[in-house]
Write a structure and sequence with these properties.
Two copies of one chain form a homodimer. Chain A is built from 14 helices and 18 strands. By secondary structure, chain A is of the alpha+beta class. Chains A, B: InterPro entries: FAD-bd_oxidored_4_C, FAD-bd_PCMH, FAD-bd_PCMH-like_sf, FAD-bd_PCMH_sub2, FAD-linked_Oxase-like_C, FAD-linked_OxidoTrans_Type4, Oxid_FAD_bind_N, Vanillyl_alc_oxidase_C-sub2.
């Protein structure tokens, strides 16, 4: 039996069978995605223990669902019937931070903010900063290719992953990628693993590229009467050739929810708040802040100013980070993650408003608007089944609109379970076939997070 | 017969059978790598014609070797016996340059410098700048994940590829990747294609990310008595936390060869010239130039100065670009492309000197030294077979040294044929198995540039 065999190869405290604990590891933050009860939870401390677990899953033809902190928003970490849930939250060593080579080597369970703090202590910066950074792990960030606030200027997790240690679908422990600045020795399998949501391998160590810490940022804030007006400001900033270090949208619903929870004394005088930042040094930063301010005003901001109060600016960014958990307190939230070309952001925001009205669904908006990545959050009263059906219809319309505008169904959260239908629409049959071929090549036993990202293949 | 069937599906002028022309398309610039005579050359004008050609190769179980300008240095484009050579040099349309979304869409035969010039006309910049940029094509750059001078600060081709149109190994024409700033819908198959040297698909269109044009650069030049001293200057710059926009090494042999060819009046007073650049604006740029100068001097530069003469600085960079073809005029050149961690650059340069002495082989050095990517060029007199054997032994020692120092056998040129042995040493059996699995999944008929990057699989 699987559990007996796991007990034979792992220290006893790695294996969890208590049903209450199993339940707590059965799903991530995607409340709408289905999940089952795992057969067992394994919390390994070493790569060898991960490898031993993978080998047992192969031996027993048992699905393996790997997860970190479980902050995912697409159901990618949800348990499937009878699976092993492999929780990497005890592999938290920061093995190395090298200021000369500008890289860090960490175990997958290191929390994003912990890595960032350790780097900062050496004058270094690990840019990817998902809103979940106080809780989410580097392993999870790698699995979903997490983005965040800084992406508009500094790119996503994949841009910072140099190398990985991985347990493969055949149970081998291997190193992919490199430690050098450049390298083209063979296929970019490390890059292929990033964003593959645990379906192609289990990451047991991550080598990330670092940057030097930045100069303090300037913040420009603006109030708008509508998301569309704020979207026009964002499109104007892109058209003006400015690449801000952050450009975030938060609407009144989000600010109110955060304020109700955290009592931060946030102003909610406006329908929509836009927050821009520049980290360009000296005069270049002044110029960027001025351009952003002009774009805000031309797009019809009811109020706009360069913030002289760093605390106030930080509070607004903190509120943006807390928007999702704050809204979750009000009822089940269905999270979109569409991303469209910058100049189509106003059009997309208008279509989101229309979808909300068409399906009588309450939508709150947060957005990494500078790179066209929009997160309309569809909120339903707890237990209202009809509202859920309407929200699902609005969700589907928004996905269809994003694809019609040349966008993608997921900018940074991943496909998981919630976006599988959208993925099929986005990729088309030829590209889906390539995905299935790669999946089968790297997971020949079909044990790695089965059913996530890709549904069953047509020949199964 | 294959050629009859190609003639049935392609316009007549796309098919080349003249033996002299076939010979001219039989190999790239890797003089030491083996090649055969192709059966036929196809020069398509559209993606549909590429697709028709791939389908005929599948039908007739005929190898397909795709190439652009043939400036590769590893034999990746060398013809194999009886193959079709697919030359994409007639697919030269720049379809789109979008200054707001900051992207360009081009056919694979567009020459790198032509794209850069078209972008510059709109105030935009396509950074990847291999030394071959006046001749090499974007398609070839994508196939090898080409680097260049700017990589030390701005990354390589892969960092700029957003999307690809590809003919797959099963003859489907598909789009991979995206046009949006972010996107995680499915596996990163566009990234997987980059650097795969025509072994996983044929690229028929490329969507690249662009940047805004930069401020003019400052140049700092220094003369050194040895490559090791220059390497110490480079390591000191990295340790000081400065990321130059270029940091290039050129030795006396290269300068002399360029001067003999182009009569540029280059000074060759020093054993080694180091060229650093900063494109940081304003005071930050002054500071970077000062730090570089100090690092040059501390490392024992016999002369160093910030260049006040832009023409002279440009001439030195031009000479660096011409070093390879200039040396080729003197005899067969065997090109290394090792890349090591920055702090080990002096050690690696010392080992290169030792390998040259040990095997009585003349070595000229150019290097993207700022990112640890070294190009010792092993030169042999034409027709001297013993010198060739000695050079090959030196080549192998240098590869072994790079791997011993935690480096890679190829930083930017690709594996092709010349670095296959090194690849096996670098990756090890577990990772090689993954490569073969991916290759088989995406090229099930085994027609795409067979034998390149990976040798035959052990079960073949």
């Amino acid at each position: 039996m699987l559990i007996d065999d796991l007990q034979a190869v792992l220290p006893g405290d790695r294996i969890v069978r208590d049903p209450d604990v199993l339940r707590s590891f059965a799903h991530d933050e995607a409340e709408w995605a289905p999940y089952a009860q795992p057969a067992v939870v394994v919390r390994p401390r070493t790569a060898d223990e991960v490898q031993a677990t993978v080998r047992q899953c192969i031996e027993h033809a048992t699905p393996l669902v790997t997860r970190g902190a479980g902050t995912g928003l697409s159901g990618g970490a949800n348990a499937v019937e009878g699976c092993v849930v492999l929780v990497l939250d005890r592999m938290t060593a920061i093995r190395e931070i090298d200021p000369v080579e500008r890289l860090a080597v960490v175990e997958p369970g290191v929390v994003n903010d912990d890595l960032r703090a350790a780097c900062a202590a050496q004058g270094l910066w690990y840019p990817p900063d998902p809103a979940s950074s106080p809780w989410s792990t580097i392993g999870g960030n790698v699995a979903t290719n997490a983005g965040g606030v800084c992406c508009v200027k500094y790119g996503v997790t994949r841009d910072y992953v140099l190398g990985l240690q991985v347990v493969t679908g055949t149970g081998e422990l291997v190193r992919l990628g490199r430690r050098t600045a450049k390298g083209v020795a063979g296929y970019d399998l490390a890059g292929l693993m990033v964003g593959s949501e645990g379906t192609l391998g289990v990451v047991t160590e991550v080598t990330v590229r670092l940057r030097a810490q930045r100069a303090p940022e300037r913040t420009v804030a603006g109030y708008f009467d509508s998301t569309v007006a704020a979207g026009e400001a964002a499109a104007a900033i892109a058209a003006a050739g400015v690449v801000p270090s952050a450009l975030e949208l938060v609407d009144r619903h989000c600010l109110a929810a955060v304020d109700a929870w955290k009592n931060m004394g946030l102003s909610a005088d406006a329908e929509v708040v836009l927050l821009g930042r520049s980290d360009a040094p000296g005069e270049a930063g002044d110029r960027e802040a001025t351009v952003m301010l002009e774009c805000f005003e031309k797009a019809g901001a009811t109020w706009a100013a360069q913030s002289s109060d760093q605390e106030e600016a930080d509070a607004l960014f903190a509120a943006r980070r807390l928007a999702y958990p704050a809204l979750e307190r009000l009822g089940p939230v269905l999270t979109e993650d569409v991303c469209v070309p910058t100049h189509l952001v106003p059009e997309m925001l208008a279509r989101i408003d229309l979808a909300a009205k068409r399906h009588d669904t309450q939508v709150a908006n947060i957005a990494h608007i500078g790179d066209g990545n929009l997160h309309p959050l569809l909120i339903t009263p707890t237990g209202d089944e009809d509202a859920r059906r309407r929200a699902q219809a609005a969700f589907d319309d928004i996905v269809a609109d994003a694809l019609a505008l040349g966008g993608t169904v997921t900018g940074e959260h991943g496909v998981g379970l919630l976006k599988r239908t959208g993925l099929v629409q986005e990729l088309g049959p030829g590209v889906l076939e390539l995905h299935h071929a790669v999946k089968k090549a790297l997971d020949p036993h079909g044990i790695l997070n089965p059913g996530k990202v890709l549904g069953p293949h047509s020949d199964e």
